[in-house]
Write a structure and sequence with these properties.
The chain is mainly α. The chain is built from four helices and no strands. Helix 2 packs across helix 3.
Length: about 120
């Protein structure tokens, strides 16, 4: 385990709200730098989505209990949903639960850049 302190649900929700605001600001900004930034975010989200899928594949194969425990974490459950990774069950919801809008990181697909 790591010694890094964990964020509580309120802090996670605040970070997600900030992310939503920053992405919205980027989307309304024109120019090549904004386009590159949005492409970078979309590509990063795709890479992390693949990583989450691989973690869940291995967790499910190793231990259904581990897969269930991962799906019980509200942040992970919403990330699984965001990236289309089947966690085996829907995330819990309730007061103070973090929520990631499903379009937060998947608003735009990464563009494939052709070499000149």
């Amino acid at each position: 385990m790591t010694d890094r302190p964990r964020l509580d649900e309120r802090a996670v929700a605040g970070n997600l709200e900030l992310l939503e605001e920053l992405l919205s600001e980027l989307e309304t900004t024109s120019g090549p730098t904004a386009e590159t930034a949005l492409d970078a975010v979309a590509t990063l989200a795709g890479v992390y989505g693949e990583a989450l899928a691989r973690v869940m594949d291995r967790a499910t194969a190793a231990s259904p209990e581990l897969a269930s425990a991962l799906a019980d974490d509200i942040l992970l459950a919403h990330l699984f949903a965001l990236h289309g990774v089947p966690p085996g069950k829907a995330p819990a919801s309730g007061p103070g639960a973090a929520f990631i809008p499903l379009d937060t990181l998947s608003r735009r697909p990464a563009t494939s850049r052709a070499a000149p």
